[in-house]
Hints:
Layout: H1 2-17, H2 22-39, E1 45-46, E2 51-53, H3 55-75, H4 79-90, H5 93-101, H6 104-111, H7 116-132, H8 136-156, H9 160-165, E3 185-187, H10 192-202, H11 212-222, H12 229-244, H13 247-255, H14 273-308, H15 321-328, H16 338-366, H17 372-398, H18 404-412, H19 420-463, H20 474-477, H21 485-503, H22 511-514
Antiparallel strand pairs: 1-2, 2-3
Helix pairs in contact: 2-13, 4-8, 5-7, 6-14, 7-14, 10-13, 14-21, 16-17, 16-21, 17-19, 18-19, 19-21
Amino acid sequence: MGMANGNFFQNVIASLLGGNDPEAIKKRMLKNIAKNLSKTKFHFYKYSSDTIDISLPKFFYEIYKVISPAQIMFQNSNQTALKKAVINLSLTEKQLEYMDSFSEESIEAQSRDMEIKALQKKVLQDLNAFTASFDSNRITAVDATYTKLLLLSNFCTFDYYFLLKKFDSSLKEHDFNLQPKFQPSLKSSYISEDLKNFTAVAWTLPLEADWSDVFQLLKRLKGVEPITLNAWKKVLSRLKVIKERNVFEMMIQLISKNPGYKENIKGEEFHIMDDFISNVKKQAEEVVDSLKRKQTEGKIDGLLVQVFGTTSIDSLRNYNESSSGMFERKNFNGYIYCDPLRYLKQFLLDFTKRDMREISDILLVRGEWATQQLAKPMSEAYHQLLEVSENITVLDSKLAENGEYGVKLKTLLPRSDRDKEARNIINTVLGDANDEAARLITQAAKNYIVYDRNLKMALEDFVKVPHSELIINWKELDHFAEGNLKQMCVDAYKKIYLFVQLIQNFNISTREAEK
């Protein structure tokens, strides 16, 4: 009986105090929060009526008055402009000189008086000196100034006007001539999100930091201080107290009826100098590379005219830029040796199978060499070049729609966006085609060099007639030529030399060579 009475009284007491009921616990917690909030000197919120006291809009209005000129300034600026201003104002005279020398106009001007290789070396040296002029302390200081400036911008561009209009609908933006007439008690739910948004920008501010660098920068940038440093320090001082006493956090807990709400706002740091230095290097190198590319293109056009008499050379039927575009649009490498391969094919057709054939027939077939071993390198080079011509045709045929490579590519390309295996096979096929093209071009270039070297030896031997050492019957051979044999050989030697120069302007390599 005693035990039953004990349980009875415990249940009565628990029912009166709320016991373990979650709602009762929450109410007690909210009451405690309200009590703690009332102990602060900031009486922004009335718990009993769940309304906002007039002192809160007055608090925001005072901040709004202070930051208003800066708000207009920041609204008319963008993050990129602020970043550029911070960096430019931090550079020394020497660094600014380097920056000028890295501009496209400056590099192009230098290229008129300097070989591209020498210019590339000079720009690289200057870039290294420019990079070395930034020590870690300076980089940290500039990053810190930019971070504070950006956080100040975020704080100033918070929409104070939108918030204050809820308390005084007649309020005019950036007009402080008339004293506002704020509604004395506004339902707290109207400003719950505003408080969260405000703390999201206010509590990222480094409240105890030295802000003199930021305000000096703004003065240099705009000629005036949009906010005085003293006024800003007063704002920071008040914010610091409110943050330390968790005033807005407690208000949000009470307004949202969520005693477990916690502000989880961390200070931010922005790093701009490393990217800035990297971008300066990248842009300068790109200008030099562009000039180098233009110069190479100019050389190529000049050599094309000397070798073919035109810059318009027919493309191959399948291994060409148009077909390559289908793959490039789906982020494959495509056919990367279209130009050198078509130039080689045209040279084989126009020159090797015509002019070189005639010279080879006269020198290698009709010529009486001191020993056949002396003629062998030139003969093998010529016949291997004829094989290259056939192999280019074979490669191009493989890439036709019904060819060995073409069938795979045509079947797999539509699936490549969603099928990883299809992409892998396409990459392999394209790689094989490019490797074969590279091998053919490299093989041809080597054989042209061998042929040309031996042709030069033959010409030097021709000068020694009648005491020639390589070919014994030079006088007879001249009768088999349609024109002057020596001039034919001289012209052929020059043309082969020019064509090899043309091919050497392209970076030819196979996957095996790159490993």
